[in-house]
Structures are given as structure tokens and as C-alpha cells.
Amino acid sequence: MLNNKMEVLSPAGDMECLVKAVDFGADAVFLAGKEFGMRTAPKNFDSQLLVKAVEYAHSKGAKVYVTCNTLPRNNELSRLPKFLCECGQCGVDAFIIADLGVLELAKKYAPKVQIHISTQAGIVNYASANAFYNMGASRVVLAREMSLEEIADIRAHTPSELELEVFVHGAMCVSFSGRCLISAYMTGRDANRGDCAQPCRWKYHLYEENREGQFFPVEENDDGTYLYNSKDMCMIDYIPQLYSAGVSSLKIEGRAKSAYYTAVVTNAYRHAVNAFYVGGCKSDYTVDERIRAELDKISHRQYSQGFYLGTQPGQNTSDGGYIRHYDFVATCESSEGNNAVIIQRNRFFAGDTLDVLPPDGIPFNITVNELFDEDGNSVESAPHPLQRLKAVTSGNIPSGSMLRKKRQS
Fold it and tell me: How many angstroms separate the CA atoms of 54 and 40, rounded?
């Protein structure tokens, strides 16, 4: 595996996210159909849109992996063969599977599609990894509760043909590798069927039964206690260690996240991985600060390295919210010289300095000198969602760029 470049694998909750993932450097994307995927909140892909998604990704040299990793009930099984056949016919590259019955059905109804074993299977040892390989899996997505040392041990005791995929960025479930029942118990929404209500992010207080109406916060601060609130994963500073451990694919969490999130995180890991290989895969490689800074330009919880370094990842006990330093304000549809056609996403003003993230290259700042609406009228701001505007700026904005504005501190 170490002779092959580590894959950057990005999430795609809808077509816009898929396009941004591919355009900003993903080697592959993972997505879901309308059934059998572990995320029901995103729009996901019906059969017609899945065809378009595969065509677009393949035209750019990227692969498409379809999540089929719920634990289907008996009454759902009759619908699986048709779904698997449709995926196979439109050319998806792999299924991500957790259930052994689904694995057997995939081999029968879509034999040309590779099989990746989901993190939901809880693989934490090489015996399990080898067992799935012998069943026909070409890749295993390891459990999140793994240290780099344990991953290296799995790599040393499995065939080199078996790829190892790990999560390197994004939100972490309180149960880390899944199979959580809190949401189902509290709200009736089953996390193992893609419908988690995320009660682990809620704020909790303690009540004593004989003191009705009084609560006793088990508190870390005055706002209460976030008992289960996991920090976000961020492993961009540990590319050499992941490489040395034998990791094949770097997976970014976030199929329920925005296209902006997908573009920014994909871009950061793409540049980090490229720089690592260009530099000769040296163990002392460090990420350029400009790349690392990109991950602070998205909404996120406090970052941690999970279990990778052999320590507990910890919880964010101070609050359940996000850290936000930048607002995503527009995308560039087209440009010629210093004139750009942009699509508004959040309000900004003529005279603002915006941070531009191009699909290729490094971020830079531009000033919006003038704004005009579609009728050619000069406007002072962009207040309307998805409004198309013409901007006269201090420099050229490449088509497809994401524009953001730094928040006032």
C-alpha cells in the first residue's frame, strides 16, 4: 500500500456537495441512495441523480462509494436487490456495508462492485479484518476507537491488497463507531437507521425526585453539563503517522454538512497529502500553516485526535455549539478579469474584503469594489439568498471559488 498515494475521501450529501468535493480535490466521494444509508437528513441521491453523480465523478477521475450500511429489517430486504442492481448498472465503484446479509446480497446482485466494510462493523483487530477480506471485501473502514499503533499492527497482519480506511476529520458520535441507542430510546429516531436526533449534543441537568421543579446541574460551567458531547476529529497534522501506520484512505465525515464545508476540508487535506508526497513522505513533514488555517474557517467544535495517539479524545463540556470565525457569503459562477458573476449565500457589502478559496491554488483576499444586481443597478449589499450579482473586485476570482467573510471579533 505504501507505494500508493493515500486517498482523500470526501462526503457528498447532495449533488452540489459532490461537485465541490470533486472540484476541490477528492479522489473519491461517499454518498447514499434514498434508502439503506446511515444519513437520512441529507437530500441523498435517487436512481437518476446517482447516474449523474457517477458520470460527473468519473469524468474527473474520482470514484463513488455508496453507503449501504444500515441494519435492514426483514421487511426491507425485498427492496435491496433492485437497489444493488441499479447501483451496479450505473457504475458505482464500491458499496460500504455493515451487515453480513447485505454483503452476500451485494455479491450476488452487483458482483462487479467492490465491497468496503463499514466502521459500523466495529473492526478493531486483524482477525476481523482478515475474515472480511476472505468474504470478498477489498477494504475495511476501521473503528474510530483505534490508535495508530493498533492500526499498524492490523496492517502488518493483513494482506497488502486489503485497504485500510480511517476517519480523519469531522464530527464524532458519542458511540464513536456507531450502534448507539440513545436517540432511539429518547426520541424514537433510530441512529442505526440513519435518523439520529443527536441527543448527545443536548444540555442536561439533574433532578432530585423529592424536590419537584428544582434542578441540580452536574455542571462544568454555569450553562450546565454536556455529558456526551464529543469533540470533532482533526488529523491533518498527522499525515506522516497515518502513512506509516499503513492507512490507504483518509475519510472526511460530513454527509449532512454544507457544500462549503466539503470544499474547504477536501481542499485542505488534498493540499496536505500532495505536499507530503512531493516532499518525499518524510516523517518530519509538517503542514503549511496556510493549509492548517483553512480548518478554522469552517464551523466546528473543539478539535481532537480521537484515540489515535493512545489517549481518550475527551468531551467538549463547555457548550454544545460550534466555533465560527468566518461566514460563507458567495460562490463565483464565472469571471472575466476583475468582473465576476457571483451567487450570494450570506449577506455582504460593497467595500468588504473577502477571503477567496479557489478550486486550485491557495486562498487570497480581494476587495469588492462595486456590486450590481441582474438588472445592472448598483447595490450596496447582497441581502437576498441565492441572488445572482455582478461584482467588480480588486482581482480575478477563479470560477468555482468559495468566498467567505471573517467575522468581527
Answer: 20
How far apart (Å, rounded) are the C-alpha atoms in residues 77 and 71? 10
Least confident of 208-222, 246-260, 344-358: 208-222
pLDDT of 317 higher than 60: no
Cell triple for 375? 438588472
Read off the amino acid at residue 408: Q
pLDDT digits (tens, 9 = 90+) for 325-347: 999 999 999 999 999 999 999 99
Tell which residue, 122, 126, 82, 85, has the closest CA to residue 100: 122
H-run or E-run covering 369 = strand 364-372
User: If pLDDT is split at 50, 70 and 90, which confidence band does 2 have?
Assistant: very low
| Distance from C-alpha of 140 to C-alpha of 159, rounded to nearest angstrom | 12
- Whether 65 has a pLDDT exceeding 70, the answer reads yes
Helices (H), 286-352: 289-294
pLDDT digits over 337-396, tens only?
Answer: 999 999 999 999 999 999 999 998 889 999 999 999 999 999 999 888 899 999 999 999
pLDDT at 310: 83
Distance CA 63, CA 81 (A): 22
Domains within the chain, CATH numbers bracketed: 7-175+230-304 (3.20.20.70), 326-406 (2.40.30.10)
Contact 283, 11 (CB under 8 A): no
What is the DSSP code string of 124-172? -SHHHHHHHHHTT-SEEE--TT--HHHHHHHHHTS-TTSEEEEEEEE--
Q: Which amino acid is it at 130? A: N
Q: Where are the alpha helices (DSSP H) in 157-235?
A: 182-187
**DSSP summary character for residue 371:** E
C-alpha distances in Å from residue 62, one per residue of 18, 100, 147, 357, 400: 10, 27, 29, 21, 18
Residue 344, C-alpha cell as written in the block:
450570494
Task: Report the alpha-carbon distance of residue 97 to residue 103 in Å, rounded.
Answer: 6
